[in-house]
Amino acid sequence: MEIVWLCLVTAMITAYAVLDGFDIGAGIIHFCAGRSESDRRKILRSIGPVWDGNEVWLIAAGGTLYLAFPRLYASSFSGLYLPLMIVLWLLILRGISIEFRNHIESPVWKPFWDVCFTLSSALLAVFYGAALGNVIRGAPLDAEGEFFLPLWTNFGVSGEVGILDWYTVPVGVWAFLTLTQHGALWVALKTDGDIQRRCRRIAQAAWIGVALTSALVASLTILVQPRTWQNLTQYPWGWVFPILAVSSLIGILAFCRAGNDEWAFFSSCVYIAVMLMGAVFGIFPYVLPSNTNPNLGLTIYNTATNRYGLSVGLAWWIPGMILVIGYFVFVYKYFAGKVRMDDDGY
Amino acid sequence: MDSALGLHRFHFAFTAAYHYIFPQLTMGLALLIVVLKTIGLRRNEEHYNRAARFWAKIFAISFGMGVVTGIPMEFQFGTNWSRFSKAAGGVVGQTLAMEGVFSFFLESIFLGLFLFAEKRLGPRKHWWSAFLVFLGSWLSGFFIIATNAWMQHPLGYAQNPHGEIVLNNFSALIFNPWVFWQYFHNMAGSVVTASFVVASIGALYLLQGQHQAYGRTFVRLGVLSGLAGSLILLFPTGDGQGRNLARYQPAALAAMEGLFHTTQGAPVAVVGQPDVSKQKLDNPILLPGMLSLLTYQRWEAEVKGLDAFPESERPDNVPLLYYSYHIMVGLGVIFILVTVLSAWKLLRGKLYDCRRWLWVLMLMLPFPFIANTAGWMTAELGRQPWLIYGLMRTSQGYSGQVSSGNTLFTLIGFMGMYALLSILFLFLVYREVAQGPEPPQKF
Q: B71 — contact with chain A (CB < 8 Å)?
């Protein structure tokens, strides 16, 4: 049952990363890729009807994590207090940049929000990556399962660590590049003409960075968290994650070069999904390892709620998710194809 | 008070009170937009569709504010109240996760359709998108109230040897008797807020002599729904909520009423300032016997005063609780008076020309927000010193490992951020109101 819920929570976080990932990515490239007002309107319009729904995956995934693994939620959220608060502020800034930008036609108002949108999206990507790095590296948990991390200490990975160190910063850079590529592929898919060509170029440039940082992060991960290698040898089926990651990464470049935006974007979705799932697999059964004393690490077994809660949760989660998938299929089909500027929103 | 505890409490209270400015408007407004869309569809009149579109713009701005200030609320259960989450996350996580899965997806997806695809959807499907946004937002309210109701009156749980509180009866959580009255009381409050906002903008238009037809529609709609909402606030929902309090949280009731001593034939204090050290109410104006009558339906019934409870089980801020409650009730009475008189004038066809009364309606705008906030303060302060009534004290629930310096840092951050948001919000809403329901064709 704990494993079932781990899979469900992972699936929801993955959905969040893939879906909100593309609108964060669109935000990162917004200022550079959108040279003219009409380009920027198109970029915003490509995410306008869906970004809010995408962000709900964060709330829903958070709620599900809270329900299934309350002790993990309590420990990690309070331990990562500062970066989470910064993430919240960035989410606020980003949300209002999207919502408020188009309200006033002014050469002062719009560029201001464009810069806010790009900056907050870029920083969010870096912080999400760093957060993932922190979970993989582990935290200095005490016997109560509590810890508190400052933003940085000596940038080392053992003992009194901070959020940013020589492992988590490269993961943050990797996340930034990955989402840049993901967002560029999305905008290329939704537009045509100059802006589409520009986005394809950005995606291909980002690809080189993604490939390099992926290799770097993968080797650092095995170094910092030996458990990942151990899990791969213990459960050889886990090789499916690195194999899929490499093949989808190749797919991104090949499809993007060929001008097949649908498949390039789809490959990028697969890439992000298997990287995240691979990370969860790598530290299993831990969900937050300890970087000081392995016995103090949080696993799915010592953080899950009782069986009754897990079963009753499953009883409503499944029909609930079927509905949600229904809405998403409906709305993405509805807004499928290139961005249309004729049906003006409010 | 321990300063870390105090800061964590203020952190949550501040962000929650600020957040709730927006949902109380959007939940009520969602209902009123559905009403406008329904009239528009039935009578096939573009006037009502335009009116709905105008409020949809205000709705969209407020909804965006509600979303961005709402995400911090869920996070804070983990960041600032980790010991509470560690102990009780298995219970409150259920309702919070259900809120995400059942209401936020519904709301946000159909809001995208509602705002971006009116022409493509056509009138009937557009009505459905409005209705589903309304349904999503009201469901969301339900799950939040169910969470709060469990903290006010915990049911369906078991405590395991590690002190963890786990769920053992799901339907007791959802059908908690506390949920019913609290939910409808809260939603009626939300309808009142939206109604007064709509009526107030309508009155503004009539007074300024512009957008007259819309002004009349807004005033009529706002007055009628505000009347219904205000009456439901008093009876049956307020009354039901009061009886729940008398039964399950008698110490909170005593503090709200400023009743220091157990009394037979207890009075209702209309005015008065509680003096906690002397255990009495200064400058009281009392309605004798009323509290006994309202609570137990007998003039002579005994109502327990604060002295009936040990000090460790009394709410820790009696004066603030007393004032919150009195502000809520006082404003509730004013809402009923204003809407009854307005409806009377409306029936006689004199409302639209009575400038003095339109001024009153216009100036009512901020008061429902104050009343709703005071209502929530009453609920939350009344539950003290408990975080989960009778089970876990507030002082046991906060994140002990997050130092007060870090909490103050993020509190200041939120205050600055929200100050900025307020300016932007008012500015954008002002522009929409100034532009009116018939904007010039867009670029």
A: yes
